[in-house]
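step 3/5: co-fold with zinc ion
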Amino acid sequence: MADLLITVAPTGAETTKEACPQLPTTLAELVSTAQECELVGAAMVHVHIRDGEHRPTLDLGRLKETVQALRQETDLVVQLSTGGSVHDPLESRLRVLEAEPDSCSLTMGTTNFGDDVFLNPWPFVVDLYQQSIERQVVPEFELFDLGHVASLNRLLDQEGPPFGGRVHIDLVMGVPGGMPGTPDALVAAVAALPAGVTSWSATGIGRSALPVAFASLSKGGHLRVGMEDVLTLAKGVPVERNAQLVERAAALGRLAQRQPMTPAQAHALLNTARHQSGGSAA
Ligand code: KMH
Ligand code: ZN
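step 4/5: write tokens
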């Protein structure tokens, strides 16, 4: 069995600081969270940032500062969200790449998102993909639905391989409006993945977190965990620190005979620009 890539998604764009004071929303909180998560097994961080009032923002200055700080204080693969919040304009989401992260999320289609719509029209997907190649950013294809698997096939056929040549997927399951967070849905999605996929992970939103994690490990996939996706460890038991979720993922992985990957191994897996230039810890 291959080593286990654990990605932590510590913040997201949906939960407010008022509702969850332990959510890392400042740069200092984000960096210390990332360091703590790296110590217990995370190798990549999926980043959404907040403004001075803890509201989601795609401010380019803040994004650049965040990438620099995470690179300075951790060895993690730094992945910026290009999904942002459901209220962010497409133009601002494209400009996220200017912050020069190692990786970016790239969602393969529009999806209902609770009462909102997470907009990803095809021309935007293609534009973002082409820009990720130009800027040497490794995309993580986020698939919220089975239709997104078909769109990924279409994108790779039409546009060719991503920067770095590796095709890494994250199945985001259990969003109200997307595919359910069930083992059956995971098996169906994995069976439909393009032949060129080199690695995939999965995350289950809310109460689907554990069933999706078990199903992913059973099928040889990697794991994404974090307070972007789930705020309780069990019914009525709030997550106090993202590292608790990373620790749990690492423990599940070890039970499945999968050792948490180091950040250097993750850079190599994804063939990031830093890995190619010898600038990652690898
Ligand atoms: N916040 C969601 C609307 C991504 O990071 O690329 C989109 C999201 C996906 O979280
Ligand atoms: Zn996200």
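step 5/5: annotate
The first strand starts at residue 6 and ends at 8.
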